[in-house]
Specification:
The complex is a heterotetramer of chains A (522), B (93), C (118) and D (153). Chain A has 522 residues and is mostly helical. Chain A has a domain at 281-490. Chain A has 19 helices and 2 strands. Chain C is an all-alpha fold and 118 residues long. Classes of the chains: A mainly alpha (522), B mainly alpha (93), C mainly alpha (118), D mainly alpha (153).
Amino acid sequence: MDKLLTYSPILIIAIPLAVAFLIPLISRAGGKARNALVIASLAFVEFLVIILARDIYLNGIHIYTLGAIAPDLALPGGVMVPIRIILEVDAMSIFMGIIWATVSLTAAIYSLSHMARETGQTRFYTLSLLMVAGCFGMIFTGDLFNLFVFLEITSISGAALIAFRTRFADAVEGGFKYIVISAVAGLMFLFGVGLLYAQYNSLNIGFLASVMQYSMLDKIALTLFLMSLTIKTGMVPLHMWYPDSYSVAPANITAMLVITSHACMYAVFRVCFSLYGITLGVAALGWIVVIIGLLTMFVGVTMAVFQTDVMRFMSYHAISQMGYMWLGVGVGLAVLGNPEALATYGRDAIGGGIFHILNHAMYKPLLFLTAGALYHRTATRDLNKMGGLGHNMKFTLILYIIGTLSIAGIPPLNGFASKFLIYESVYQFNPVLAVVAMLVSIITLASFTKAFQSAFTGPQLPEYKDVKEVPKPMLIGMGILAAGIIFTSIFPGLVLEHIVYPATDALINQAAYVNGIMGGIP
Amino acid sequence: MRQVIGLIVLLVVIAFLVSGMLQFIHPFGYPPSDIDDYIIEKAQEETASNNVVASVVFDYRGFDTLGEATILFTAVTGVLLLLRTVKRKEKNS
Amino acid sequence: MMEHVPLNFPFLAAALLVGISFYILIFKRNLIKLIMGIGMLASGVNLFLVALGYRAGGNAPIYTDVPEGPMVLPVPQALTLTSIVINVAVLALMLTMVILIYRHTGNIDSKKSRILKG
Amino acid sequence: MLSKIVRTAANQLILFILIFGLYVIAHGHLTPGGGFQGGAVIVSGVVMLLVAFSSKELKKSLRERTLSVMESSGALIFIGLAFAGIGIAFFYNFLVGTPIFGRIPVTGPNPGDIWTGGVIPLMNFAVGLKVVAGLSAVVLAMALFSSGEEIEE
């Protein structure tokens, strides 16, 4: 078992890759074998992530050096510089790993029946497995150029999957916008990596953090990193592509794409906290992130109020929920400088932001999957055309209610726990921010009740009389996410203590991340 | 009018890049190179190949090349997925 | 050591390429020109990466019958190889989507072929 | 479909392009080149054939099914070679020192001996196979789609 443990970071990335290469050959034996292989491999990856998570929470950072004589040999003999690519998995990366493994497994189960009637399924499953491998690579790698390569894998497979329904013109246009934005963002990121390589001749995040001197070039590189990665998460000034791309993709692909935006946000945190750390002018950087977070929150929800397309409506809400995360972690970043402010509310702010990532990663895919279920039965995304579907789509109705209450932050459910943590800590930093955050949460609740009313309640429309409930696999997929939401709602303290706060401490503690690579040498 | 704004934006961006490049980047031809000296020196013995770039591509940073081969595989599968002739099996939708 | 060094021409060329491609990305409406702009941006960044690795008077880092003299840095060349292949993959996908957009909307002017509003 | 002269010339020329491409792939660890560059050379030969013969004829000889099998097997060989050294580490060069490809060259400038390079020549072949199959499938699919042909799936 422990042998499996030492190899688990690389196995989690390599198994989806190997299976993706295998699927075109296996699919000749029929669709059933292919689907079984996809679900089996994703389940095994989920198992690997869980045992790796347990090991990391017990004894800290986990390293895997690719191609060295021993897997944990970071520095080859007689040299103080890491030569090879090193996968560094700390509590924060495994936190994202757990989210990504669960959501990709549910999306795969969901797609078994949602995609049953589409052509080109073999290539669809190959691309979704490649996207799974790409995002795992982005989360686990400790190497900047490797982060760029896996960012590109996720973008290219995402763009092809967005444009999957080639018979609709808007799907192809959404895919084109996504690939253009990702290409430009990737090249800007590469430019920043080139700048850092020009000065320190290394690409390893841990080593760069230890030799960083904050010269003018490093500041330019930081702006390039932030600009390129925040474009991919749908920040306000550059968010117009986000609803266009995420509303036209199949529902399970949108659910996975939301998590890839979280992975880009994780990359921003890795750059801000682990690569540049405290000594950079953190207060100014923190304030920028806070202001952008507020803007994202507000514009996202105001644009969402009058949307008629249910998927566009959900995409705008996804943008506004991202604003909460930026707000929480931005406040934490702003007070990273003075330790006593950090101790009182800084750590809670970052904890709230990261806990909100976990909650958002559960209820937003659930809402997208329920919207997909509506599309599966009514073949339309227009809220005005839907009506009275609650009568014969009972389970979808219940799941939609769970998702809505959770996103609006109603007390019993988990959305409230993380938002309350953010309000409480952000209030001590600056009361105005907390007031705006609460206002946005109220507007979210209002807009979701409107959407709920137009889709589910009301008289049963004649053309939807014979609409049946969605098939079994789609319900199982949505059920897993709903179970996750309910578990986090009942035991928020448990989840906070065991998963969220270790991740927060791992993010704040840059020295541990650097020592993981440099082996304790200051 | 838009052309004028465009040219101004272009000049500002190029001026910013050129100024950044002239003052701060290391002089062309004299880069810091501690990793690369180690690789040039040890490549033949550790990876048994004369072409040091090939040893970097396939052995020292082989994981990048695996990622890159995956990117090529993704792009080919994506293109063939998009250019498939759509014969959708319309049962009941 | 600094005075006789040649002006950083490759970095100047990379800066110009990136600057011009920004202009194209912002102002050109034809989708094919947009793709050419991204191709130009990619070659600008690749030129910047390769120019980082040059060592004055260096030879190619290949030990087969190499003349005397220092060797050029191999790692930036490996990074550029990967970046070029990524650029090929991205361009292939973008061109396929332009083919499909042209087939759906009959033109490739980004203003007229805009379907998604609001 | 170009004139007969062009078609016969293309038939002869493809052989030289193929040989040169294989040379670039095979000597990836000795001279500049390798899997990607050699594969691109061979794909340029395939594009030449596509120009000389129309995409309908080429579809008969280059079946889309075989290209996808070639590409998947190339990728599987590559990741298999990477997995083979899992005993020590994922991308470990396990063939260094073994008689197959592993002779360690004399350090410093040397004329270059093909039986060196450990895993690198095998990986070059796998990547070359993948690039040839993948890019020719893309070029063929684009040609068939624009001319309204059926890309059999």
